Amino acid sequence: MTTTETGSGTPDVLRYTAFSSDPDGGNPAGVVLDASGLDEARMLAIAAEVGYSETAFLTPSPDGDGAPGTAPGRGFTVRYFSPAAEVPFCGHATVAAAVALAERIGPGELVFATPAGTVPVTVTTGGGGLRATLTSVEPYVAGIGEDDLAEALAALGWQPGELDPSLPARIAYAGARHLVLAAATRERLAALDYDFERLRALMLRLDLTTLQLVWREGDSGDGTGTGPGTVFHVRDPFPVGGVVEDPATGAAAAALGGYLRALGLITAPAVLTLHQGHDMGRPGLLEVGLREDDPRVRVSGAAARIG
Hints:
By secondary structure, the chain is an alpha+beta fold. 21% of the residues lie in helices and 36% in strands. The protein has six helices and 17 strands. The protein is globular and about 50 Å long. Mean pLDDT is 92; it is low at 1-8 and 220-228.
């Protein structure tokens, strides 16, 4: 597979939205299907020019596959850049890139070698379009100090009493680190107006990619992973990437799934539904799957070409 270049020497950047079949919904991502020959500075410059929260840069694996059992031509090395920095993993750009590839080489199994680790992706057809499911690297959950939590709340303009005590603050990882904070009400989640530089400084110090702000809809309270307790509304401030808010965040969705299982708040097997982007006018839908026999998290969604 080759990537055409413009007269200026810039590789052709495809534009897709992930976690929506509507180009006006979900989270836009840039996709470069063959980034061979591009160095880090050039990729960062292209991502800044594209202006989306992330752009994925793919390079076909030299041996034609990505892992044992992967069909030739379906393995890729992937790097992800925001307009301001490289990030170790990006879920929505993974979904966008997988669908872009499937439109050219057909649906099926793909393997992405990312800075965070190996991420298998399955692309299927159905429901009028292509749908991608990524499998995260193994997740973990870590605590956050009282002073750091207080600083995060101060940067957000949130009061401690506005948090949902049933979903304690934690740092969750499934390819990138995210601070999970749960709002007690949908109104608190909707009213997002934070101190960009203050929050950015804290996130850089704690090596956070986004804040995963969540509100759990109609919690059933039984911990079984069934019923209304599996529906969440989420928002993701992303100042470290030079972006005020990410409209649909697959890496944070995977981290949330790992967090819920690790804290015993959901029992696998379970399927979670995440609504994101509605408060920004770009509604998206993310499906998070937890299995009994595998600690890794599955994140699924549609994608559509923009323009």
